[in-house]
Sequence to fold (311 residues):
Amino acid sequence: MGPPGGYNGTMLAPLKVLVTRWRLRFHGDGGSVDPVILRGALLLQYRRMVCPKPRWNDPCDPCPHLAECSYGQLFAARPAHMKVLTRNAAVPRPYVFRPDPRVDSTFQLVLVGSAAALLPRITRIFLKLESRGLHRGGPPFELAGITCLEPGGERPLSPDDPPAPRPLDDWVPGGLGPDLLLRFTAPASIASGGSPVDRPEPGPVIRRMRDRLSTLAAAWCGGPPEWDFAALGRLADAVALLEDRTTWVRRRRRSGRTGESYSISGFTGEALWRGVPPELLPIVAGCSLVGVGKRCAFGNGAFEVHPAHRA
Fold:
């Protein structure tokens, strides 16, 4: 997404994000910035930094220190004000790992709201991992640099003094009209009424975008947006899927820590939507920073938004 050039609204308040780019330099073959590997490495090393060894494999829920534990905030906690999220059983994680397809060995880490304050600790964890590698048998690496991405460009970042997260509204570009091209770069797993959605139908997808942004705001940014959910849902249903150029990708992931296996399947490719009203444009554009659907924390549901021009 480019810099904003026309939108100056507050539709997405109070959502704020810190968008960072990380460059790794691997010393050997087999290095990967796959989001699943990155998240797993962060989770494992973080747990070992904050928990005594006898508790490394214990569940977090009974721990008396969970409420003030930064590991718990990222991976396991239910914030005290989660009572506002009446329709969602799970707390959305306040981070998203996304590979940067334009630059080798580079990934983006998006931190939402209060999680931005954890950047210094996350940086120290990756520095500890340099000599060990990101996974068993993986090559050592060097953290070559971290930068802060902003709507207008990119600037150096000091991990010990990170900038404050910016309003998500700042990332909504001008120039988006009622016709949009969405490019899903990682499998998007969307459900509607308890059933999986196998194509990028605007109604169900935009509803999930709405719900994801609302729950992130409620859990990590001080409260939910002031939206008329029913009205937004009706607007979403009126958007047309003009072209569907997506395919269904079947994938599974096995957790090295728990041994559990689960699906990370979904649709990828391009979809052309026609008739997106102005009220929904910020939601679609803003959600492109944090993904939509299941398993967003390690990159699933990543997508780009571009203006589409009528033939």
In short: The chain is about 20% helix and 25% strand. Confidence is low (pLDDT under 50) at residues 1-5. The CA atoms of residues 198 and 267 lie 7 Å apart. Residues 168-307 form a domain with the Alpha-Beta Plaits fold (CATH 3.30.70.1900).
